[in-house]
Amino acid sequence: MIFRRSFLTGAAAAALSMPTVLRAHTEEPFVLADEFQPREVRVREQHSPGQILVFPRSFFLYYVFDSERAVRYGVGVGKAGLAFKGSAIIERKAEWPSWRPTNDMIRRNPDRYAQFAEGVPGGPGNPLGARALYLYRDGRDTYYRIHGTTEPWSIGQSVSNGCIRMLNDHVIQLYEQVPVGTPVTVL
Questions:
Q1: Where is the L,D-TPase catalytic domain (predicted)?
Q2: Considering only CA atoms, which of 124, 166, 130 is closest in space to residue 20?
Q3: Which residues are the active-site residues?
Q4: Among 75, 86, 87, 152, which has the highest number of CB atoms less than 10 A from its own CB?
């Protein structure tokens, strides 16, 4: 079980407590709801430093950075029935990744995805946003990602095709903290 904890004092806590205001890649400024702002929280000691925990039903991702301490981020998740569950390893990371919808995505919603069948180059308009962490299981790509988004208002909602989406600023922070080989558990 994960417990809330008040912010630590100091520069790190101050940075985490500031509202996230986005102007890049959106027409209007966007302010993330307070409940989805990054927060330092306590976690049970059974969770080892260096792992990521994702709780899709509550729309949170936890990066455990120290014994019993984690940073909790608000996320958007895949629609029910499409989301990955279980354990995986980050085996690849990309800055401004390119993207191509899966064949299943194109089949399920051709009006939306067929136009992208040849792929979308990385950059501000790419649906994977600023960074992507690619999850693998037993050496095979799960096609499940932790990535940025061009739709910041989707944080705290179930809207995508199964991936975990974060604000671009937040996924950049996470990307810089976690190495390839980081374990991820989606509960």
A1: 51-186
A2: 166
A3: 147, 163
A4: 75
